[in-house]
Amino acid sequence: MKTAKLAKSFRIDDGKHFRLKDFDPADTGRLHSIEQAKEQLQKDIARMEELQSRLYAQDCWSLLLIFQAMDAAGKDGTIKHVMSGVNPEGVQVTSFKAPSATELQHDFLWRTTQHLPERGHIGIFNRSYYEEVLVVRVHPKVLAAEKLPPSLVTKNIWEERFEDIRCFERHMARNGSVIRKFFLHLSKKEQKRRFLARLEEPEKNWKFSAADIQEREYWDDYQKAYEDMIRNTAAKHAPWYVIPADNKWFTHLAVSAAIVETLEELELSYPKVDASKRKELQAARQLLMKK
Ligand code: ATP
Ligand code: MG
After folding, report:
1. DSSP E strand boundaries for 176-277
2. N or C: which end of the chain has fewer CB within 10 A?
3. What is the DSSP letter of 181?
4. CB distance 107 to ligand 1 below 6 Å
5. What does the buried/exposed string (b/e) look like for 12-29 if buried means 16 or more CB atoms within 10 Å of the residue's CB?
6. Atom 31 of ligand 1: nearest residue by CA position
7. What percent of the chain has pLDDT over 70?
8. What is the whole-number distance in angstroms between the Cα of residue 95 and the centre of ligand 1?
């Protein structure tokens, strides 16, 4: 399957009829061999490198990639693999954990806003303001700790947060920031297998966290929250990609295909050299040749 076609089958531009159960975490497209996928991934990575270099030179668009997922879905590995070819100078990765005391003194978009990519750059958010309609929704005590004026916390709070996020992303899009959001869709069964591997394989022990096992108890609540989030925040200018995450090799391929698709759509080109610049280059060349 062509890169663009592969990515499109996981892309949600309009969430109105979105249902998570229509997406299979174990889907591998029509690809059946890891070798074939690896070859395609290498091609995508090389293409991404070329496109990133144009994005940087053109210095007008920025690209924000947001990753959300249940624990052990492979966010870190995906970011590492997919971005392995790009020039590190043009990419910033930011991970968002539970908010600090300072962060809790501000509105929920404050901390992520400070890490938005500048023009010409790619920004990657490993978790994001979307946690505000996920973990915060699943655990009422997290919301209670947010120090909001009580009269502002009503039954409409999630609807209001979706609206704020939609407005924020539209604002960003109108200013040249291209936003693409990835939900790495893992099955409960595969999560169990990966947690067990963290317990059993010494080199994976460091990844194990007892809190992750507790969070697993809330699996169904999280799935509902993810579904509602995608329904309410998928947009043509800021689509969600629901990426099958049970097979890591396929996750990497589908994410890289989506990034290539996005950069291709921007029709990036190196800045044009005008007559005066050409003259300047000519003069510089002559100067160099003299010595
Ligand atoms: P790893 O894969 O290494 O475990 P991680 O992204 O899960 O990486 P952790 O240190 O385990 O990192 O934890 C991040 C935790 O922070 C998650 O449980 C997440 O739900 C929580 N978190 C992130 N943003 C918020 C937020 N706005 N409010 C409350 N909790 C948050
Ligand atoms: Mg974790």
Report:
1. 177-185, 240-244
2. C
3. E
4. no
5. beebeebebeebebebbb
6. 98
7. 99
8. 8
Q: Are 55 and 270 contacting, i.e. CB atoms less than 8 angstroms apart?
A: no
Distances, alpha carbon 56 to alpha carbons 136, 179, 234, 269, in Å = 36, 16, 27, 10
| Neighbour tally for 248: CB within 10 Å | 17
Whose C-alpha lies nearest to ligand 1, atom 28? Answer: 98
Tokens representing 156 are: 């409409």
CA distance 12 to 34: 26
Q: What angle do CA 195, 196, 200 make, to 5 degrees?
A: 125
- One-letter amino acid for residue 287 of the chain: L
CB atoms within 10 A of CB 82: 26
Query: CB neighbours (10 Å) of residue 107?
Result: 13
Q: Which atom of ligand 1 is nearest to the CA of 108?
A: 27
For the stretch 190-202, pLDDT in tens is: 999 999 999 999 9
Q: Which two tokens stand for residue 250?
A: 């396929």
Distance CA 119, CA 177 (A): 8
pTM of the model: 0.95
Widest CA span of the chain, in angstroms?
76
